[in-house]
Amino acid sequence: MDNFNWRPMRANDLDGVVAVAASAFPGHFESRACFEERLRLFPQGCFALAATDTVKGYLITYPWPLGAIPPLNSLIGKLPERRDALYLHDLALHPDMRGQGQVRPILERLVRDTRAMGIPAIALVSVNDTAAFWQAMGFQPAPDDDAIGRKLHSYGDGSVYMIREL
């Protein structure tokens, strides 16, 4: 079996990223253009779990205002001026890579990198009943907020906005 490791994402990884996203989030489609844009806007926050050119996972993050949720499957154009959180847009593994301890190492790196940037928190939207997983990784549900609740609607039932303060 190939030895898969986390490394900075490259443009030629995007086909693999799209394939992993389709397997991990079948009810939350995002176009290749979304992934391309995030990589272009903030390459230092994009990683691939890969062996040579085979991608079996990815992580996409970028600076974003705490308490704000970017719309699903939409281009953001540019990064906002207010950057009081690092938004964890996606972390996904191909089904045959799950349960092998691949998540914790990249999250530990993400925490170190986020602290080094002087950003005080990491935020995400938990989908597909993964809130307990994210809590085990140090994230907590944000306090109830009507505006956040309306934004979460497009992410589906059971979606939760979560924050890990650093």
What does this protein look like?
- This protein has 166 residues and is of the alpha+beta class.
- It has a single domain (5-165), classed as 3-Layer(aba) Sandwich (Aminopeptidase).
- It is built from five helices and seven strands; from the N terminus they run βααβββαβαβαβ.
- The protein has helices at 14-24, 32-41, 103-116, 131-136, 146-152; strands at 5-8, 46-51, 54-64, 85-93, 121-126, 140-141, 160-165.
- It has a seven-stranded mixed beta sheet with strand order 1-2-3-4-5-7-6, with helices on both faces.
- The longest helix has 14 residues, at 103-116.
- The radius of gyration is 15 Å and the shape is globular.
- The model has no long low-confidence stretch (mean pLDDT 93).
Output the radius of gyration: 15 Å
Quaternary class: single chain
Largest sheet: 7 strands, mixed
The CATH level-2 architecture is identified as 3-Layer(aba) Sandwich
The first-to-last residue Cα distance is: 36 Å
Task: Name the beta content range.
Answer: 25-35%
Shape verdict: globular
Blueprint of the fold:
Elements: E1 5-8, H1 14-24, H2 32-41, E2 46-51, E3 54-64, E4 85-93, H3 103-116, E5 121-126, H4 131-136, E6 140-141, H5 146-152, E7 160-165
Offer a concise description of the structure.
By secondary structure, the protein is of the alpha+beta class. The protein has helices spanning 14-24, 32-41, 103-116, 131-136, 146-152; strands at 5-8, 46-51, 54-64, 85-93, 121-126, 140-141, 160-165.
